[in-house]
């Protein structure tokens, strides 16, 4: 491609972007914003997208998956069948056609694929079957930000597998898990597969693939000593408490705590450490009130609470609900003497707290010298808190550390969540009707563009891995008005194209400084510069990543280029 006529509108600065990937994609002319969270991919951006898509397609096809294409516009009835139409949330883009029929723009396609398969497959003899697509998705993000990392319209690879038994699902899950490892390795990413929560997709058994980056929105708990990694929402907390036996604790006593509502405020006021407090938080779990107790220096993990009850909806009660049930504002609620009976569950660490402080269910008052088991009863103890750095690894006993990550892939074992809800069945070997057992596997294609840049850039611009670079070679003629330079550059351009090499030829009538600055910004792996030594038949070859360079006779460029491309990725 000749740069003189290419649509590559570079910018020196941008003001509307905070994330490095967002800034560089705009500055380097890879994309332009149409609306908040909606972008045009310009020619360079489209080339990168296609490189990523081809790698994903190759690895998915290798598993035996079949590619198809489903519509972005989906009838609401399918989502009403599954029950997600009302529970998915405000991110679901809903609309009506001219006849008043309800539709949605698909954020994911479990319902659509289930409806397709139930109409076409009715026997175990056609199973297992994995189908996938690469398509645009829509989610009405409240605050789209971070460029491609959180948009309202994005490109995704979503795959769905159908099975007669769970052993078969487990095998496909492992096959696609390995395909994902292959994909992200080929993309040049430093990533971890972490145990995760299924969220709105549903199902049991799931892993997220996280690109390690400070730009990530997710916190990952990882072990220093083994390969354990989990999203902070799912990370297991090892209970190390010891039975407090019959600890001698004075009788419970009410104390005045005027205006002190938070653990920190009451701790300071009473002069007691926060770990001696028991925090009481009221949740509404599938419309039922549940009081959740954790130690004062811990935080409730809402996902664990939701999963404990296998609930559809779990959320912290609002102030009005707290007042209605407990009779007091949040901050004074405790497990003793609630006005209405509620289920009480507690994190496992609460059972070994000695001489605790709790809310008194009375404004401006707390109870001291409270002993779990003596002064109040708990319906169930469980792992309900968010893991902390320094906690014990649940696999090997090492120390847990936190890292930030960008989610780029997610694999789920859906089971029969959708097939049962949508009456999608097949006949098994005995002729009995059974619901399909399903898996679901997603990759954020457009998000990967940003994730790669977050890991591969420097102060001058992007540094693309060779496999996804829009072009392998950036050929620069320093001065196209110089006859020697123009002749050699034109000759190299034609020679590289004939050899099947992807090359961007900077034939613009621009200053050398502008060309070099743009080259660094665009991030193409290998740069060949035809400059002052063109009259001697000499050109410079340089790597974008390391800065390594050498002078070559222009006749030797094609012969030497494969070695330089290998070095460009550190091979």
Amino- and carboxy-terminal Cα gap: 27 Å
Write the CATH architecture name of the largest domain: 2-Layer Sandwich
CATH domain fold name of the largest domain: BirA Bifunctional Protein, domain 2
Pick out the low-confidence regions.
none
CATH superfamily of the largest domain: Bira Bifunctional Protein, Domain 2
Measured on Cα atoms, how large is the radius of gyration?
A: 29 Å
Sheet/helix structural class: alpha+beta
Shape: globular
Helix content: 25-40%
Catalytic activity: tRNA(Pro) + L-proline + ATP = L-prolyl-tRNA(Pro) + AMP + diphosphate
EC number: 6.1.1.15
Pfam families: HGTP_anticodon (PF03129), tRNA-synt_2b (PF00587), tRNA_edit (PF04073)
Domain Aminoacyl-transfer RNA synthetases class-II family profile: 32-465
Structural write-up:
- Strand 25 and strand 26 form a beta hairpin.
- The radius of gyration is 29 Å and the shape is globular.
- The chain starts with 19 loop residues before the first helix and ends with a helix.
- It folds into three domains: 3-69 and 106-236 and 401-453, BirA Bifunctional Protein, domain 2; 253-382, YbaK/aminoacyl-tRNA synthetase-associated domain (YbaK protein, Alpha-Beta Complex); 471-568, Anticodon-binding domain (Rossmann fold).
- Helix content is 26%, strand content 29%.
- It is α+β, with helices and mostly antiparallel strands.
């Amino acid at each position: 491609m000749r740069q003189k006529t290419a649509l590559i509108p570079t910018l020196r600065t941008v003001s509307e972007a905070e994330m490095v990937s967002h800034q560089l994609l705009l500055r380097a002319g890879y994309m332009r914003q149409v609306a908040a969270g909606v972008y045009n991919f310009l020619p360079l951006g489209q080339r990168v997208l296609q490189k990523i898509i081809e790698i994903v397609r190759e690895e998915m096809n290798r598993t035996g998956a079949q590619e198809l294409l489903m519509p972005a516009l989906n009838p609401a009835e399918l989502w009403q069948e599954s029950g997600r139409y009302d529970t998915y949330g405000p991110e679901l883009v809903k609309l009506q056609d001219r006849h008043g029929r309800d539709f949605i723009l698909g954020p994911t396609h479990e319902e659509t694929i289930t409806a397709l398969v139930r109409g076409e497959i009715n026997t175990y003899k056609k199973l297992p079957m994995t189908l996938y697509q690469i398509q645009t998705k829509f989610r009405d993000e409240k605050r789209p930000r971070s460029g491609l990392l959180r948009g309202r319209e994005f490109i995704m690879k979503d795959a769905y597998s159908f099975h007669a038994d769970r052993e078969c699902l487990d095998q496909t899950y492992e096959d696609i898990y390995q395909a994902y490892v292959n994909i992200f390795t080929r993309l040049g990413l430093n990533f971890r597969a972490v145990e995760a929560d299924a969220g709105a997709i549903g199902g049991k058994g799931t892993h997220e693939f996280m690109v390690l980056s400070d730009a990530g929105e997710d916190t990952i708990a990882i072990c220093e000593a083994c390969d354990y990694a989990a999203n902070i929402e799912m990370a297991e907390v090892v209970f190390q408490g010891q039975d407090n036996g019959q600890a001698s604790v004075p009788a419970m006593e009410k104390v005045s705590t005027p205006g002190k509502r938070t653990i920190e405020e009451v701790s300071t006021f009473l002069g007691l450490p926060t770990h001696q407090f028991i925090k009481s938080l009221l949740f509404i779990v599938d419309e039922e009130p549940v009081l959740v107790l954790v130690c004062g220096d811990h935080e409730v993990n809402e996902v664990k609470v939701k999963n404990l009850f296998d609930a559809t909806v779990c959320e912290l009660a609002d102030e009005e609900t707290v007042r209605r049930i407990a009779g007091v504002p949040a901050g004074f609620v405790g497990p003793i003497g609630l006005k209405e009976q509620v289920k009480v569950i507690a994190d496992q660490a609460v059972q070994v707290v000695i001489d605790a402080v709790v809310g008194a269910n009375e404004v401006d008052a707390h109870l001291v010298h409270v002993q779990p088991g003596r002064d109040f009863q708990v319906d169930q103890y469980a792992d309900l808190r968010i893991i902390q750095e320094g906690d014990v690894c649940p696999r090997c006993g090492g120390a847990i550390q936190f890292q930030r990550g960008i989610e780029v892939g997610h694999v789920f074992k859906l089971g029969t969540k959708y097939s049962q809800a949508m009456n999608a069945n097949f006949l098994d070997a005995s002729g009995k009707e059974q619901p399909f057992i399903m898996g679901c596997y997603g990759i954020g294609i457009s998000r990967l563009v940003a994730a790669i840049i977050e890991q591969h850039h420097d102060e001058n611009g992007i540094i693309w891995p060779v496999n996804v670079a829009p072009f392998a070679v950036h050929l620069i003629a320093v001065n196209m008005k110089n006859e020697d330079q123009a002749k050699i550059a034109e000759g190299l351009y034609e020679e590289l194209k004939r050899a099947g090499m992807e090359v961007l030829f900077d034939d613009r009538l621009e200053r050398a400084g502008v060309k070099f600055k743009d080259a660094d910004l665009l991030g193409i792996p290998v740069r060949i510069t035809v400059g002052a030594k063109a009259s001697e038949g000499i050109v410079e070859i340089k790597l974008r990543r390391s800065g390594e360079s050498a002078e070559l006779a222009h006749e030797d460029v094609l012969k030497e280029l494969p070695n330089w491309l290998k070095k460009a990725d550190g091979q």
